[in-house]
Amino acid sequence: MMDTLSYRMAEDWVDGGSPLEALHLLEPKADELRASASGSLLLGRAYYRSAQLRKAEEELRHAVELAPADAYARYLLGRTLQRQSRHADALPHLRLAAAQNPEYAEDRDTCAARLA
Fold first, then answer.
1. Digit-coded pLDDT (tens) for 55-84
2. I need a surface site. Which of 12, 42, 61, 111 has the fewest CB within 10 A?
3. Quick check: helix, strand or coil at residue 19?
């Protein structure tokens, strides 16, 4: 079981720009982390920040499945798809995220413009 201190340390590493260090802590506990939306989101964030976009997509899709109302998880899934030039796939997630949080509207609009 992943203890709270290790989880917080991994969060700090992701936030501080050291996602690979975070993944060294997270990957051995990945199955356990996937039991919760927050665990999948943290894995997804670490993969996203380390440019492992396919793995990020998988984790973020799982996080959205577990917590469909989580605007940030949906936003980050949209950004992950957008970074893969999959704008048509990204736009619905970015629209939903922006509907919940206006801070995400610019990314939604940028994605929509790419499709126009």
1. 999 999 999 999 999 999 999 999 999 999
2. 12
3. helix
